[in-house]
Every structure is written in C-alpha cells, then in structure tokens.
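Supplementary Methods S3. Input chains for the assembly prediction are listed below.
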Amino acid sequence: MMNLKKNELLYFALRNNKLKVGLAILLFFAVLTVVGPLLTDYPPFDYIGPAAAPPSAEFWFGTTTFGQDVFTQFVHGLKASFLVGIVGGGLGTLLGILIGFIAGYRGGLVDEILNMLTNIVLVIPTLAVLLIIVAYLEVRGLFIESIFIGCTAWPWAARAIRAQTFSLRSRDFVDLARLSGMKSLKVIFTEIAPNMMSYLLLVFILQFGGAVLIAATLDFIGLGPTNAISLGLMMNNAVLWGALILGIWWWFIPPGLAITAIVGALYVTNVGLDEVFNPKLREM
Amino acid sequence: MKRYFGRKLLVYILTFFIAVTIDWMIPRFMPGNPVDVLMARAGSFAGATELMHDYYTKVFGLDVPLWQQYINFWGALLHGDLGISVYVFPKPVAEVIMDAVPFDIFLLVPSILLSWFAGNWFGAFAARSKRLDNTILPLGYILTATPYMWLAMLLAWTLGIVFEVFPIAGGYSFSLTPTFSWVFISSLFKHWFLPFISLFLVGFGGWAIGMRNMIIYELEADYSHYLEALGAPRKLVRKYAFNNAVLPQLTGLALQLGVIVAGALVTEVVFSYPGIGYLILQAINTRDYFLLQGCFLFIILGVLLANFVIDIAYVLVDPRTRAGMQGESA
Amino acid sequence: MKRLSFVLAILIGLSMLLASCQPAVTEAPVVTEPTTEAPAVTEAPVATEAPAEAPPEEFVREETLYMGGTQWGPPTGFNPWNLGNYAAGTFGLCYEPLFIYDPLADEFVPWLAESGEWTSDTVYQVKIRQGVTWSDGSPFTAADVKATFDIAKDAPVSISPVWKFLGSVEAVDDYTVNFTFTTALYQGWSYYLYSTPMISKAKWEGKPVEEVTSGLNPEPECTGPYIAESLDQTKVVWLKRDGWWATEALGLDPKPKRIVDIVNSGNNNVALGMVLQGQFDLNNNFLPGISKLVDGGYGVHTYYPEAPYHLSANTAWLLMNLTKKPMDDPAFRRAVAFAIDVSQIVNVVYGGMVLPANPTGLLPNWDKYIDQAVVDEVGFSYDPEEAKVILAAAGYKDTDGDGFVEAPDGSKIDLKINNPNGWTDWMESNKVIANSLKAVGIKAEPNFPDYPEYVSQRNDGTYDMMISNDAQIANTPWRYYLWMGRNPVADVATMQDGNYGRYENQEVFDLTDQLDQVPTDDIEGMKTIISKLQRIYLTDMPLIPLWYNGMWSQTSDAYWTNWPSSEEGAPHWTPVSWRGYWNMTAIRMLTDLEPAGE
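Predicted structure tokens for the full assembly:
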C-alpha cells in the first residue's frame, strides 16, 4: 500500500459511488450547519410563534408546544452533533490508537494490563460515570459530553488496532527495523502507523458516527447538555411533552432523520473509502 | 496452553473485581444520599424526618465508615445478598431485579441472536450479488444508523398510536393477572413485539453490512483465489468465506453488547417496558446504591462472560493470536 | 476444519442458550406475581383468608376502574407506615382515617369517628362509629385507635412527632377515646385527625420496630371498601369487599368491583396515550397539552371544562438562599419578585393549566385568610420597570458594562436557579424565570441537578435559588406557615420540612407557634395572626410565590361517569388518587361513580 500513488487513489475515489453519495450527504448537513442559523431570525429557545403549529412558509419545520421554531432548534442541534462527533469521535480514536499500538506492539504483560483496562471500560455502565461528571460540573455542556463519550468509546478501536498491529508486527520490515535497534515507539510511528493510516481514518469515521449516536442516547434520557440544544434533546422534549400522542410529528421526525442521515452517510463513506484504499474490494 | 488460560481467567477475575469496585464507588461519590431521598418522599408530618433519618441511615448500613461499608458489601455479595432497595423500599434488591430480568432476557436474547443470524445470513447473500447489494445494502445502512429511540418512537407513533395495532406500553395488558394461559401469553407477545422489532431492525442492519463487507474481504483473499484457480465450485469458496467471516462477526457481537444494552435501555423507556433499563434510571434518580449495584452486577457479568467466550474462541481458532498473546519473551 | 467446527459449536451453543431461554421466559412473569408468596415477613397463613375466589384471568372492563398517577415505582406492599412507598390506595381504600377533610367546602366529615370534640383545654374526645368491621370480620374499636398512636411511640414513623405534644391516649370504653395533650396544639392536631391511618391492634401490637417501619404487610387488614387482591411490578389490584360500614351508615357504595392502579412509566406519552385510548378511567399525571384533548371531543374531562382545567394542589415558590449574597438583601429579593413574568409561565409553559399565585402564596381554598389590605399595600406584581427601580435604589448597578448589575459592594452577581432534572414543566418555567431576571439585569441561569442532588443542595443550603412546592393543600394555613418558618434554622438540614431559605426572624417563629395554639374554629383569631405574618413575609420576601400546581386529573367517560367537576349538579370532590387525597374526599369520588352503560 505504501507505493500507492496519490492520483491513483483520487481516480478510484472519484469513481466510487458510495463515497460520492456519503460525502454529498455529509457536505449538505455541514453546509446547513453553517448556513442554517443565518436562514432563521429566531433564537432557538424563544417563544416566537403559535403553539404546535405545523410546518408552514413562516415556520419551515413548524413550532413546538411552546411556540419555539423547530427549524431553528434543528440547525443549532446539527452543530451539536458535529461537535460531538469530531471531539468525541476524535478523542475515542486517539485513545484507541495509543492503547491499541502499545498493546499490540509490546504484547506480553503490557498487553495483558491494557487489555484488562479495555475490558473494564467496556463493562462499566457509562451512564453512571456521566452522572458523576455531571455532579462535579455545575452546568453540563456539549464539550464535556463529547469528552466523556470519547473517554468511554475507545475500547473497540483499541482492540481492532491492536489486532492490526499484531499482524503488522511480524512483517519483515518491522522485524528489520527492530533488529536494527530502533526504539519501540519509533518503530510504531515510523514503520507501523504509516501502513495503517487508511485504517485509522476508517476507525475515526466509525467513532464519529458512534459518538453521534451515543450523544443522542444520552440526550434522550435527559443527561444531555443543559445550556444548549441538540438533536437528541429535541427528541427528548418532544416525547416529554406528548408530541407523539398530540400528533406533533414535525417536532421529532427531523432530528431523528438528520441523525440517521449523518450516521448512515458516515458508514457509507467508510465503506467507500475502504474500497478506495483496498484495491481488492473495488467493485468489478 | 493450560498456563495461558489460567492467566486469562485470573485477568478476568481481576477485571470483575475492579469493575464491581468501581460500580460500588460510583453511586457513593455522587452527591446526595438515599436516605434524604427517602425522607423527601415521605415528609408530610412536621418533625417526622428528624426522627426517621438516623433510623434509616442505620437500616441501610450507611452509619459506618466507607471502608467498613465496602467490606460489608463484599461480605454480603459473597452470600448472594444484594441489600435492600431504596427505590422500592423495603424490597430486597435481588427480588426487584428478578422481577425485571425475565423481561430483559425475553427482549434481548431473541433480538440480539435473531438479528445476528438474520443479518449475517442476508449480508452473506448480498455480498457480490449486484441486485441484492443494491437493495439490502442501503436499507442496512439506514437501519444501523438509526438511533434506537427514534426508530422506537416512529414505530410507537405509527403502529401504536395512529393505527393502534400494537399496545404502546407495559409488559402485558393491565387487565390481566399473570397466568400460564393463552390470553396472557398472547398479550405478552403483543407487548413484546414493538420493542423487539425496533431492537432487531437496528441490529439487523449492522450485522448485514458487517457480514457483506467481511465476505468480500474473504472472497478477495488469496486463498479464495487459489481455490477458484484450482477449480473449486463457487459455492464451496463462498462457504469457506462465510466460515471465516463469521468469526470477526462474533467478536463484534461481544463488543456490541454494551451498545445494545444501552439501546435496550432507551427502547424500554420509550415503550415503558418493565426491564432493567428503566430500573437503572430510577435507581440513579433515587440514589439507590443497592439497586444500582445489583443492576450493574448483572450487566458486568454478562459482558465479561461474553468477552471471555470470545477470547477463548479467538485463541483456539487463530494460532497467530496465540503466539502473540504469549508475549515477546518467546 | 478445526476452526469451522469450533464456530459451529459456538453457534449451536448460542442457539441452545436461546432455546433454553425461551420457555423460561413465558413462565417467567408468573414468578413476579402473587403477593401472598412474597417474603414471609409476616404471619404465614394469611393467604387462606384472602379473596375466596382466585383472581380471574382477565378483569371485566365494565366492572373495573383503571387509574394511575400516584405510584412512581413498583408497588412494595401495603404497610401504611412505609414512608411514601406503600402501594397506592393503601391509605384510603383499605386503611381509613377518623375524619376526612373536604378542602372545597372547608369542613371535616366524620368517617371512622362519629364525632370529636375538645372536652377540656387539653383533652380531645373521639366517639368511634359503631358497626365498623375489619376485613376479617372483627369490630373496629377504641383499642385500635389507641394502638395506632401507641405504635408510633416506639417506632419512628410519620406520625411519631405527635408525641411531642400528646401526653397519652386512653380508651374510655369500646367506642370512646380520650387524647390528653401536654400542650394543646389545636392546628397541628387537626391535621392528624384526617391523616392518620387506623390500624388493627390485634395485628400490629407486639411487632418488632423494623417490622412496623419496613415490613411489607402483604395482607393488609382493612376497614375500607376495598381489599388488596394482588400486586405486581406494574400494577396494584384492589377488590371490593362486602360489608363496608359506610354502605349501611352513609348509603355509600363504590360501584367498581376492581380498582387497578397502574405504575407510572416516567413517560408522559404513555400516560397521555392511554388516556386517549380509554385505557385509563382516571389519570393524575401532569399531562401537557390536555386542553387540546378536553376541547377536541376525545371524551376526556378535567375538573374545570376550561382554563385552568385543574384545582390547585400546592404553591410553587422561588426559594432564595438567605445565607448567600445578594439574596440576603430584602431589596434584592423584592426586585426579583417584581421581575418574574409569571403569566408567561402560566400561559405558555402550562398552556393555562395552572393559576398564578396570590402574593401571599395561600392556596385558593384559604382565600378567606388573605388580608387584601396588606396585599394591596405591600404585595408585588409583574413589573420589570419597578424591579429596575428597586435595584437601582438599593445600589445595584452595572459597573463593568456587561449588561448585568453588580452588587453594591461591586462584586459580580451570577446566580443559579435549581430544579430537578427531568421535571419538564419546571425546567421550562425555570428558563422563563432566568430570562425574566436577565431582562432586569440580574444574571441568572437555570440549573438542572438530578433530584437527589437538588435535595442535598437544598438541605445543605448550598444553592442560590430553587423552585419548590413543599406545602401541600391542607385543612389549616398553619401548615403553610410552618413550612415557610421552620425553626430553628440550624436544624433545617435534619428536619427537612421547610424554610430551606434559612429565613431567621424570631417574630415569625413566635407568631407561627401562636397560630398553632389557636382553636381551629376561631377563624378571626387565626386571621389576626395570619395578617401579621403576611405583612412580614411580603415586606421581607424570603421566598416568592409563583403559581399553583394543579391537582392534575384527567377522567374518561367511556366506562365510568359522574366524575367530580365544577359543573352544576356534579359532585365536588378532590379528583385525585394521590397519597393523602383519598382522605380529602377522593373516596367520595369513588362512591359517586356510575357505570357508563346504564
């Protein structure tokens, strides 16, 4: 893979439909996140319209029971999802890389200890950990939520990267580097990591999607940010204020749809990229 | 080999010990305490709280130093005693959990296993089959990307409220007394269906996608090409590919358990399904140390056990892994 | 090949697990059910005297009343002393008080007692009704009344504080009980008269303390119209019994053969949906958007056919922590009172389902105790300009130009307003309050700790401001003032029954104690003291009454009719099944119900 030419990758990337569709959807939502707030005159929480009005020319996505503009909340909520995805997913990937590399490369006791750490984090019910953090931080914010998600989302990535490192470790060029007296960390970062770059990108994309879903779950059960709006929080509010029964579908359909679209697009992009990086997977 | 498994077991016991300890600590580091909550719920007669506060602190064994509480906790746990619940005072935690666990097993085991089997089956079919790939695949992506509660909300709204096909709440009809009868069991299934199908669908999408990708990896592996070159029938090659692809999917199952449990939690919330998920939320909200510990214990045991099985499977099946795990000393 | 067979083995193992789980599952819920088999905490062979016929597989819809809104967790038994945790209906349907109190008419109705009167300054004599029987057929007598109070002497239960001013209880004869007080606290005692469940001496005497406080009492003895039939994780089932005393004595006969109380799901959608689909006959949850359903022809009714839809149950206050700056400054507190736009809370957040509070905070049923002259003179109303004037006059100015005022000593003001996470209506109201305060230049943010932390900040006095609604509707406004003026302030954390703002004013404490000693029929005497209290509270503003939370009640005419309503000719009873409301005439709601079919 080392000798893959850049333009060759680009060629296959441009021909890959999955990649194109995934990126297009992501781009659409990214643009909406940036431009959306400019399209609306309302602050997300203000009572500006009639109660529970269906979508109209004035209120594109209708209003909540309190007369808040759903579209405004929606575009602000998108921002929250992207933030959580980038920060939470990014942190999860970083931790996973660090632990996976070290465990995979060193093996033995180090591996054993790190593996144990991984197992512990896997089984600790993350909800309770969040509650502790909430308790010590007076106002819950999006950033804190993202950090928390990152700190609990790394185990599977660590495992996957560890396995990859295992297989690379026994390759000739790694053995060669080691025999030449290179330090472990240097071997990891000069010999192993570059060979896994594409894989790490894929891991990050999956972590991004996972973080968005976890954030939605936390927000939905009422553990989300207190001082911001998010898509999960919108669904939480909709359920708590009886939107399902009262038929205020425009309150809970858009946020869920957006999450599905964003995460789905991420997954599709992931597979598309995989096909680009891995010649064997390309559609024939 | 024996030594290896001995060490592995030790690691798991240690993990269990540490995880349970953390779960013991977590609720106790949260501000607020169960007796206050109990009092806040009870208070109505002037001055009553003052009299009851100390008494109940003693009842829950919270009047001794923390380290003593910790030792008492392990002592009780080894005798199978999980303490008394605050949330459903004065019921023993074990009983509260045993009331909820059947519903969880009823919901989780079929949805996890069926989605895993069905997903893998469809995924394997879809791989390298243009027509199926174009139909199943997009559907799979949409399903696996759907937040659990949103799918649950959509199902509750359409099938439960608009069309009134399925009930939207509870484990069985409120007009029934649990008996071993057709009416009761059919009610049980009716109430089970929506939560089940929402968990199933999300899982199904994920496994189908995963399997489809795995199969393609395997079909493009050298051994497949080699087999094909030798003139082996395509069916046989696919069979080998499937057998190899199932293993990572099994690992994935173990890794996904935590996520699935969280998904079941929100699904139970949407449908008011009387499982452990709802108990955990309530236990947190009432600082019910004992119930919280009990619920976590179940989850920890389940996830650890699954991980252990997978670990063994990996070592037995993949000699390379075994070599790596025995360390560099060799 | 080895690998293949291993995978197969795992798959087979997993499917066997699946298979072995399946049959277990279908049987499983059976395990959860019969209360009679619950931990053998009490005497064993009670099951035999339980309902003669086994409960039917499916309840007959037309004979069953489905209700909900009280039980927040799986029911745990029928111990009336078990804090707030006994199964809904235990006190009310099964155990009964001596009197019931009618808050709408402001009168006591003799119940298990035939009459009660003060025979001297310190002796209260109760005549017990004859012909009342326990569900096992034995008569209810004066000895049972005595036992009820005596049991609270040894075991720390909710009514135990009565022994601080009660000297002794004496059964003069089978149907006469004398209560002799060390200090006659007329107001305080009046509350015990309708809030104490009468238990059977034969059953409870000699029980160990932990059995009294924490026993499950799976087979309760009842004087009331219903006996416990079963309970499981999601519901409690009550079965009508023959021979309820009130049928003969008062001509009251509850029509539902069974009452099923359904455990709250913690999810408004579910309760709302069940109301809409006619699965609930009576629901007492706060259900948003109920006005839509009431007006929309769904057959759903509330006490009032239009706003405010519900009766008022308690006062929601903004409590301020007087030990912290700037809340220790009466001028600042007064400015806050003028700043809050309560009408927005009432109309937008609640959609008109609640009433704005009177500045005194006294509930509508205490209207006659409000001294309007005092309110006119020192009361407050929403007026942000006035709030700014008060702030400026007291030296609160924006010195650093950030748009928010600083305290007179130049320190910054940045406050948090607490309310429990998940209490949606309060969370939304909290946002309105914070915005109101910002509009007059006071920096404040809503803060949503979870309930236990909310409680601990309240008890420890570490909060800035909080929404609270502790004082429930009751027979005497003394209880309201007791909550506001709990003394001594040092004990607020352990007493946990009021004055969380730590308001220290000896005059108020003395007046509250004086009020306690005024006979309940001396309305003018009460008014004189209450007027003084109102003046002090409105001048000092230690807390700010905001709105009245409602007695949320949604009823359906599908199977049962003649629900309580404000309308002419309809019964006027409290329409809620909450704990402590059966003894405020909710039991009469039951006896007035009519099957819809007839």
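The mean pLDDT of chain A is 84. Chain A touches chain C at residues 45, 47, 51-52, 65-67, 131, 134-135, 138-139, 222, 226-227, 237, 239-246 (CB under 8 Å).
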